Amino acid sequence: MERLPIHGFVLAGGNSSRMGQDKALLRFRGQPMVEIAVEKLKGLCAEVGIAGNREDLTRYAPVVSESRMNIGPAAGVEAGLLNARQPWVLFMPVDVPMVPGELLQLWVDEALRVKMSVSYLGILGKQPPFCLLQRERQASFSRLLDEGERRLEVLLNRTAEADGYASWMYDERDLYGYPDYRGPDEATLARWFANVNTPEDLAEAERHVDALDR
Predict the structure, then answer these.
(1) Integer Cα distance of 146 and 21 in angstroms
(2) Beta strands in 3-156 (DSSP E)
(3) What pLDDT digit, counting tens, does each position of 77-135 carry?
(4) Cystine design at 121: which of 46, 74, 127, 174 (Cβ 3.0–4.6 Å)?
């Protein structure tokens, strides 16, 4: 995959309450999930970091700190935008280890081709933590946070509108062909975007990957 003028960030600021232990360092098939996400971003981004107040993760990539507490992934998006050193900024959550790097490449290639100022994924529903923004959108994003908005999808859409741009939610047909769909089936897409939130989620995801390897 070609590295693009993007600063990618893994969103690792959650408290992992449902897992009962830290998700970022949780091992998926022997590898910490944060490391899996960092490696995927390194495949296509010129620079990679981690958003979250987690100095213990600096062994995997530089960490940028969130200045707002208890507001969800929007805090990590703001931190990434404030610290980005590339014209585009990409975010992905730490707890989705099965998303293929090739899918991310399809998305960012298309978004950069049309210069879509703000976009996010909508695979089998909305996936706003998978978002790509021009770094220049930071001021409007932060202003909306100052005004009290916390919902990430709303923030993304309103940030684009505030700066006179459109936002776009890329779904599977945008990425794999419309009207003649040539992509993975619904079950495969669901597995790719399954969040590992609980020990049961982790066991199920590992069982699925092990079965594919047989």
Answers:
(1) 31
(2) 4-11, 27-28, 31-32, 45-51, 63-64, 88-93, 118-121, 127-134
(3) 999 999 999 999 999 999 999 999 999 999 999 999 999 999 999 999 999 999 999 99
(4) 127
Residue 161's nearest CA partner among 141, 132, 182, 181 is: 141
CA nearest 99: which of 190, 168, 185, 177? 190
Q: By the 8 A CB rule, do 28 and 83 touch? A: no
Rg, C-alpha atoms of the chain: 16
Tens digits of residue pLDDT in 137-151: 999 999 999 999 999
Q: How far is CA 95 from the centre of its chain?
A: 10
Name which of 112, 109, 114, 76 is nearest 95 in CA terms: 76
pTM: 0.93
CB-CB contact of 189 with 123 (8 Å): yes
Q: 29-42 pLDDT, tens per residue? A: 999 999 999 999 99
What are the structure tokens assigned to 52, written together? 């979250």
> Within 10 Å of residue 142's Cβ, how many Cβ atoms?
19
Q: How many CB atoms lie within 10 A of CB 64?
A: 22
Q: How far is CA 180 from CA 62, 183, 203, in A?
A: 41, 9, 35
